[in-house]
Structures are given as structure tokens and as C-alpha cells.
Design a protein that fits this description.
By secondary structure, the protein is α+β, with helices and mostly antiparallel strands. The chain folds into three domains: 155 residues, no CATH class; 70 residues; 130 residues, CBS-domain (Roll). Helices cover 58% and strands 13% of the residues. The protein contains 13 helices and eight strands. The protein has a four-stranded mixed β-sheet with strand order 1-2-3-4. It has a two-stranded antiparallel ribbon with strand order 5-6. The protein has a two-stranded antiparallel sheet with strand order 7-8. β1 and β2 form a beta hairpin. α3 runs antiparallel to α5. The radius of gyration is 25 Å and the shape is globular. It starts with a strand and ends in a 15-residue tail after the last helix.
């Protein structure tokens, strides 16, 4: 994720913090200081937020390690002001597996709360009630309550919280996955309305933020599943561009600029004897022009670490297992040679054309647009 920095790598999974998280720390410190004008209170507030997000990271590792049991890798975990996000390569296709992955995060918090409760009991027995009710016991109690709060909040039946995925998985055991998602999304948007009403009557802006977050998360999940259902068995070869410009490593940035201004293509494959050497996205081209000038060869600025697709790759897997193409072009390679490009615009146009044909009942007769059967 852009504007994120790696903190640590655990079990092969990188943990990142987003730049906006620093604003949360500053806000927490300012709030703590403003109460009694003491810097110690500011430090305590900042440490509280850091501790809370340490628990969030453990929660996300619960999801990641359970997903690993089913052969699903986790790309990374990113800390945001609204919580943590574990980016799985894909969601489990079996409802019971999705249920296990969704429950694994809250289960970690419940387990931690139980351990802290046991520690609190042991401390009380060893040092007496005075310690357990004092500063030492208070810290343990706060950590226990924080874990309970995280578990309960995440089990709210609304996307993108874990409870929304739990509800969808339970429904999907008995019905079609797309229908289960639509029901769970509607429940989530209903919960968003409840949060918004409570936020209105309590004048609590945080509840409005949560309501917006839940509403958008539910809508996004529904769209993704609808797209997956619509794409069916469509392959990359069915959608990719085959008419595009390429560059060679010795071409100059000036030549790339001419291609950019002369047409609609934004990103350019760099090839040598038909084989992919790298990619020159528009962003990299602009940076190269500003830093090195128009006379520099493409090879000096192009991206060499490129992960191409294969023509036979299923399109829904490409879109749902990664960030998707978005505004960037992804090269398509067969037998080592470049054969196409895939962009988000390709996918949108494909869906628009197929939707128009379906409305006229003519999709089956359209050459090159009928989906393949398994």
C-alpha cells in the first residue's frame, strides 16, 4: 500500500504502518496533554494507542496464520487509523474455511483476554487485592478489556468487519455465494444506518466515521462478488489488449513521450526480440523526464521487476487475488513472448459490452465474447 513503511517481518509476513497512523498518534498525544497540560499524560495516551494497535496486529496474524493452513498466503499487514488490514492472496472458496479464517482474528483477542484474566487472578493471589486494584492490576485489566472490545467490535455482522464474513460464510453453507454476500452486505448497510443514527443523537463524529466505513465496505464487497460472478470462466486472453505500442531498451524517453501524446496508451512494455524486459508506466516516465531528461534511454528508468500474466489465467482470480490492474497495465506473456496487455479499462469495457448484449439476449451469438465452460 502506498505511503506505508515496513515495521517488521514476522513469519514471512511484512507489517507496515500507513502514514496516516502517525496523525492518530499525534492526535492521541495532543488529547492526553490537553486534559491536565502534562506531557506524561500525552505519553500515556500515545502508549495506549500503540498497545491497542499491537493487539490489532496479533488479531490480523490470527487471520493470516489460519489462512496459511488452507494454502492461502498473506501479502502484508498494514496499520491504518481505523485498524489493521491483512491482505490475503485470496479468500477461501469453501464457506467453512472462510468461517474459520474470519473467526481466527477475534479468537486471538478472546484467548489473550482469557490469559490476562488468569494473570490478574494469579497476581491478586500472590500480591493481594491492593496490587490488583492499583496501577499494576489496572494495566492488566485495561489490556483485558481492550481485547474484549476488539473481539466484540469485529464480530459486528457488517463488512468489512469479521462479523460480516462470518455471516456470509454461514449463509453460503445453505445458499449461493453471491446471494449470501448480497444479504450480508444489506445487513452491514443496515448496521451502518444504526451507527449513523446513534452518532447523530450522541453528536459523536467517530460513529459517523464508522458508519461510512461500514457502508463503503459492504458496497465494495458486494461489487467484488458481483464482478466475480459476472466474469465466470473468462480468461485474460478473452479481455486483454492485443493492439498496443512497445518500446525497446535503447529507445529514449523522448520516443516514449511521443507515443504517450499520440494515443491513449499510458503504460508501455519494453521488449527485446519480442521478449519482455520491463515496463515503463506513465508515472515512471514522468519521473525519468524530470530527473534525467528526454534523451535518456528507457532502460535507465524502466521497471524490471514485473510479474506478467498468462493468457489462460482466470480473470476473476487476477482481480480478486491482488490489487488488480487499476490504472496500470499488466503484461501478458506466452512462451516467454509478449502477447497482450490487461488494464482495468479492458475489464470495464468487456463487462459493459457483455451487459449490453445480455440485455438483447445476444451474448451467445457474439464471437469472442461468450464465456468458456469449465
Amino acid at each position: 500500500m502506498r505511503w506505508s513503511w515496513r515495521l517488521v517481518t514476522v513469519a514471512g509476513i511484512g507489517v507496515y504502518v500507513h502514514a496516516t497512523y502517525l496523525l492518530l498518534l499525534i492526535g492521541a498525544g495532543w488529547y492526553g496533554y490537553s486534559q491536565e497540560k502534562r506531557w506524561l499524560d500525552a505519553l500515556v495516551a500515545v502508549l495506549f494507542v500503540i498497545t491497542l494497535f499491537a493487539l490489532v496486529v496479533m488479531h490480523e496474524f490470527g487471520h493470516a496464520l489460519m489462512a496459511r493452513r488452507y494454502g492461502i498466503s498473506t501479502r502484508d499487514i498494514t496499520l491504518l487509523p481505523i485498524g489493521g488490514v491483512a491482505r490475503l492472496e485470496r479468500m477461501p472458496e469453501k464457506p467453512r474455511q472462510e468461517l474459520a479464517v474470519a473467526l481466527a482474528g477475534p479468537a486471538v483477542n478472546v484467548l489473550l483476554a482469557g490469559l490476562l484474566f488468569a494473570v490478574l487472578g494469579a497476581v491478586d493471589k500472590a500480591f493481594g487485592e491492593e496490587f490488583s486494584l492499583g496501577t499494576g492490576g489496572g494495566v492488566i485489566t485495561d489490556l483485558m478489556l481492550m481485547n474484549i472490545m476488539l473481539a466484540v467490535f469485529n464480530l459486528v455482522p457488517a463488512f468489512p468487519m469479521d462479523g460480516g464474513r462470518v455471516l456470509r460464510a454461514l449463509l453460503a453453507i445453505r445458499m449461493d455465494y453471491a446471494r449470501a454476500t448480497n444479504i450480508a452486505a444489506r445487513v452491514g448497510q443496515g448496521m451502518a444506518g444504526v451507527f449513523a443514527i446513534f452518532g447523530l443523537f450522541s453528536a459523536n463524529p467517530l460513529l459517523f466515521l464508522i458508519a461510512l466505513f461500514v457502508w463503503m465496505g459492504a458496497a465494495q464487497e458486494a461489487r467484488m462478488v458481483q464482478m466475480k460472478s459476472a466474469l465466470g470462466r473468462v480468461t485474460v486472453a478473452d479481455v486483454m489488449m492485443t493492439d498496443f505500442r512497445t518500446l525497446e531498451p535503447e529507445d529514449t524517453l523522448s520516443q516514449a513521450t511521443m507515443y504517450l501524446l499520440a494515443g491513449w496508451q499510458k503504460d508501455f512494455p519494453v521488449v527485446s526480440d519480442g521478449r519482455l524486459e520491463g515496463m515503463l508506466p506513465r508515472r515512471v516516465l514522468m519521473e525519468g523526464l524530470a530527473r534525467l531528461g528526454a534523451g535518456m534511454p528507457v532502460a535507465d528508468v524502466m521497471e524490471r521487476d514485473v510479474s506478467p500474466l498468462r493468457p489462460e489465467d482466470l480473470l476473476d482470480g487476477v482481480l480478486l487475488s491482488s490489487d488488480g490492474p487499476h490504472a496500470r497495465s499488466i503484461p501478458v506473456v506466452k512462451d516467454g513472448r509478449l502477447v497482450g496487455l490487461l488494464t482495468a479499462e479492458n475489464v470495464r469495457e468487456f463487462l459493459m459490452v457483455r451487459s449490453a448484449l445480455e440485455r438483447r439476449g445476444a451474448r451467445a451469438n457474439a464471437p469472442g465474447l461468450a464465456t468458456r465452460t469449465a
